[in-house]
């Protein structure tokens, strides 16, 4: 099962046609302004979560009428609405993949909060099945082991970022191969480029963030 989560953010940074002609079998959850935009597009969220403190009365009414369920959070809270959504999605639906739209390209503090929350112990069981998508980037975290990733149409570049020490990072078959790369610093980064449709990499210990991107 795949769950799509819309969290707001600048509309111009959404993938082209994101809210147009959606399949009836797609499952959506909305976080705050994302819930409003889903409902305005005629998409009925499984769940809408947020404090809705910046929504108009008309927007809040629309969310209440169209959503299968609405949970109102308080504006004064430690966690972001995205974190609240991720917890509830995992508890209720146990999806194989959660695609988050709208979290990138806007406020950098929101993006960093949403990325870093996945590194907390309570989210580590979800870290490998959450992806952040916008029109220029896809961001995913990986756990230690061997991995194969596919090139995404239009995104020929990929970068590896560690949010803590990572051991023995190897990238086997791309333009700039990595052999036992030194990712021992708190934050390390290596940029690369696809030379085929798939890339293979491995590492031990820690977590690696992989970013696909357009030029």
UniProtKB/TrEMBL annotation:
<keyword id="KW-0808">Transferase</keyword>
<dbReference type="InterPro" id="IPR006282">
    <property type="entry name" value="Thi_PPkinase"/>
</dbReference>
<keyword id="KW-0067">ATP-binding</keyword>
<dbReference type="InterPro" id="IPR053149">
    <property type="entry name" value="TPK"/>
</dbReference>
<dbReference type="GO" id="GO:0009229">
    <property type="term" value="P:thiamine diphosphate biosynthetic process"/>
</dbReference>
<keyword id="KW-0547">Nucleotide-binding</keyword>
<dbReference type="GO" id="GO:0016301">
    <property type="term" value="F:kinase activity"/>
</dbReference>
<dbReference type="GO" id="GO:0004788">
    <property type="term" value="F:thiamine diphosphokinase activity"/>
</dbReference>
<feature type="domain" description="Thiamin pyrophosphokinase thiamin-binding">
    <location>
        <begin position="145"/>
        <end position="209"/>
    </location>
</feature>
<dbReference type="InterPro" id="IPR007371">
    <property type="entry name" value="TPK_catalytic"/>
</dbReference>
<dbReference type="InterPro" id="IPR007373">
    <property type="entry name" value="Thiamin_PyroPKinase_B1-bd"/>
</dbReference>
<dbReference type="GO" id="GO:0006772">
    <property type="term" value="P:thiamine metabolic process"/>
</dbReference>
<dbReference type="Pfam" id="PF04265">
    <property type="entry name" value="TPK_B1_binding"/>
</dbReference>
<keyword id="KW-0418">Kinase</keyword>
<protein>
    <recommendedName>
        <fullName>Thiamine diphosphokinase</fullName>
        <ecNumber>2.7.6.2</ecNumber>
    </recommendedName>
</protein>
<dbReference type="GO" id="GO:0030975">
    <property type="term" value="F:thiamine binding"/>
</dbReference>
<dbReference type="GO" id="GO:0005524">
    <property type="term" value="F:ATP binding"/>
</dbReference>
<dbReference type="InterPro" id="IPR036759">
    <property type="entry name" value="TPK_catalytic_sf"/>
</dbReference>
<dbReference type="Pfam" id="PF04263">
    <property type="entry name" value="TPK_catalytic"/>
</dbReference>
């Amino acid at each position: 099962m795949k769950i799509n989560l819309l969290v707001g953010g600048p509309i111009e940074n959404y993938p082209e046609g994101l809210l147009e002609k959606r399949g009836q079998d797609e499952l959506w959850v909305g976080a705050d302004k994302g819930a409003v935009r889903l409902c305005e597009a005629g998409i009925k969220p499984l769940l809408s979560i947020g404090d809705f403190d910046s929504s108009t009365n008309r927007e809040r009414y629309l969310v209440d009428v169209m959503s299968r369920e609405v949970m109102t959070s308080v504006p004064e809270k430690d966690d972001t609405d995205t974190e609240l959504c991720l917890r509830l999605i995992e508890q209720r639906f146990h999806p194989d993949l959660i695609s988050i739209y709208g979290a990138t390209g806007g406020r950098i503090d929101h993006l960093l909060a949403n990325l870093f929350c996945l590194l907390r112990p309570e989210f580590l069981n979800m870290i490998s099945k959450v992806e952040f998508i916008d029109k220029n980037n896809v961001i995913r975290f990986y756990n230690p082991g061997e991995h194969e990733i596919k090139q995404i149409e239009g995104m020929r570049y990929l970068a590896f970022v560690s949010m803590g020490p990572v051991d023995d990072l190897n990238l086997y078959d791309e333009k700039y191969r990595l052999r036992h790369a030194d990712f021992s610093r708190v934050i390390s980064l290596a940029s690369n480029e696809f030379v085929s449709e798939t890339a293979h990499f491995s590492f031990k210990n820690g977590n690696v963030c992989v970013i696909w991107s357009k030029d």
